[in-house]
Amino acid sequence: MIKVGIVGGTGYTGVELLRILAQHPKVQLEVITSRQEAGMPVDELFPSLRKQITLKFTDPGKAELNKCDIVFFATPNGVAMQQAKALYDAGVFVVDLSADFRIKDVAEWQKWYGMSHACPELVAEAVYGLPEINREQIKNARLIANPGCYPTAVQLGFLPLIEAGVVDMNHLIADTKSGVSGAGRKAEVHALFSEAADNFKSYAVPGHRHLPEIKQGLFSIAKKQVGLTFVPHLTPMIRGIHATLYAKLTKKVDLQTLYADRYAKEPFVDVLPAGNHPETRSVRGSNYCRIAVHRPQDGDIVVILSVTDNLVKGAAGQAVQNMNIIFGFPETLGIEHVPLLP
Ligand SMILES: NC(=O)C1=CN([C@@H]2O[C@H](COP(=O)(O)OP(=O)(O)OC[C@H]3O[C@@H](n4cnc5c(N)ncnc54)[C@H](OP(=O)(O)O)[C@@H]3O)[C@@H](O)[C@H]2O)C=CC1
Ligand SMILES: CC(=O)N[C@@H](CCC(=O)OP(=O)(O)O)C(=O)O
């Protein structure tokens, strides 16, 4: 058994980690932090975890995170970068669900995140935790930068096209939609029921924080500059990411075979039969990314549909997948949940 700590156990990704890790056969939950709920039994705040978790929330200032084998940060951007170094130096593995260690260019990170980086020396050490691309590096990582929710769906969707070099890299388009839980559990006006329900809107069209993250990931595969238009939307659902991706084909290729072959051995990427339209509810509560490939009217534009649950493959599930890889557990251990329907 490995001892696990979670910093930020009351947020949506933190609670999703609790749901998953409570039933993970190799995990003993040791510390779960919250500043606001310190002293409160976890299952009192979240009755869904009754008979699963008997710990109380600990104030992060008093939490003995050093006694853990691995610590997950499910905290807002800017928190993990202040605490990761001490844990790293103490030999504790760290998985950061926030964006603190995702962007290799620290100046670029500071521009998009509007703060100084507190720990630039660890950025180069961090491994970007997208197993479908970086599995070998993750095996030896001590610090994982867990990918963002949009970047997971977008990169997995574009990956086979880019690896095969069959699309125009200057004009990629990612039209993405997220459920409201993507904004976290903190109180914000735009996430109120009366603001977000029965409504649909785009946001951050001039530039979203995930743009440099996605471009960095696609660049690492293409080895050349990527022109990407990324438009996020907020949809009146709770969980889910739906990415509609467009690219112009530059070569003839059997797209269905390309995708089926690329992901044939990936446990959490499911390429649907030709002609399918994946729905977010087909992945809800699960670690799957389901992908369908289209070429409307046999033209030269390929349309990829990629769906994930933002809290699972887009956050906590992928974080546990990374943990499994680091510790040499079967990669799917504890994260083989069947999606919830309806
Ligand atoms: N929601 C999503 O779909 C996704 C989120 N992410 C990223 O994961 C991280 C967590 O997101 P999410 O769960 O939605 O966020 P929430 O706002 O729902 O939760 C944040 C958690 O962090 C704790 N926290 C806040 N400030 C601090 C602090 N200064 N020190 C220690 N703990 C703190 C909060 O508890 P308390 O205030 O009581 O301490 C709470 O438990 C974010 O960086 C987010 O960008 C990544 C992918 C998807
Ligand atoms: C719907 C919604 O608000 N989504 C969030 C992104 C989700 C997320 O948490 O991304 P990071 O992990 O990179 O912070 C947003 O657009 O800011």
From TrEMBL:
Function: Catalyzes the NADPH-dependent reduction of N-acetyl-5-glutamyl phosphate to yield N-acetyl-L-glutamate 5-semialdehyde.
Protein name per the record: N-acetyl-gamma-glutamyl-phosphate reductase
Keyword check for Amino-acid biosynthesis: yes
GO biological process, one term: L-arginine biosynthetic process
Keyword terms, alphabetized: Amino-acid biosynthesis, Arginine biosynthesis, Cytoplasm, NADP, Oxidoreductase
One GO molecular-function entry: N-acetyl-gamma-glutamyl-phosphate reductase activity
SUPFAM superfamilies: Glyceraldehyde-3-phosphate dehydrogenase-like, C-terminal domain, NAD(P)-binding Rossmann-fold domains
Major localization class: cytoplasm
Organism expressing this protein natively: Nitrosomonas communis
Top-tier EC class: oxidoreductase
Gene3D superfamilies for the chain: Dihydrodipicolinate Reductase, domain 2, NAD(P)-binding Rossmann-like Domain
Domain Semialdehyde dehydrogenase NAD-binding: 3-141
Active site: 149
Compartment list: Cytoplasm
E.C. no: 1.2.1.38
Catalysed reaction, written as an equation: N-acetyl-L-glutamate 5-semialdehyde + phosphate + NADP(+) = N-acetyl-L-glutamyl 5-phosphate + NADPH + H(+)
Family: Belongs to the NAGSA dehydrogenase family. Type 1 subfamily.
Protein origin, superkingdom: Bacteria
Pathway assigned to this chain's UniProt record: Amino-acid biosynthesis; L-arginine biosynthesis; N(2)-acetyl-L-ornithine from L-glutamate: step 3/4
Gene transcribed to yield this protein: argC
Entry GO terms, CC: cytoplasm
